[in-house]
Amino acid sequence: MCDQLSTYLKPQESGNHTGVRWARVYDDAGVGLLFEAVETPMEFSALLWTTYEIDGADTQADLPPIRKTVVRPALMRRGVGGDDSWGARTHPEYLLPRTDLIFRFAVTACRMQ
After folding, report:
1. Which of 22, 47, 72, 76 lies 20 to 30 Å from 104 when distance is taken between CA atoms?
2. pTM
3. What is the DSSP letter of 29?
4. What angle do CA 107, 111, 112 make, to 5 degrees?
């Protein structure tokens, strides 16, 4: 799972997958959780640090010791930016819709086989 965080010079959130119907996350003992999209595919990421820990690190070495797995199932996420990486707004076609959104997924315990 460590490979889901890209090794950019300055750590930044990465590892989001789209069109996910199910995902399993296990610990070293093979005990885990199964996440399943209920009606529509979801977006999903599993990282070893929170978004705040990643954003607060200047280098990979600044990330705190690994103590958890942070899973983020989501219906959708907005685009990350505009035409540059220093503050341009997201293009309108990549913004989330301004309507009520309903997202359902199931979580069950599982074991690696």
Report:
1. 47
2. 0.80
3. T
4. 120
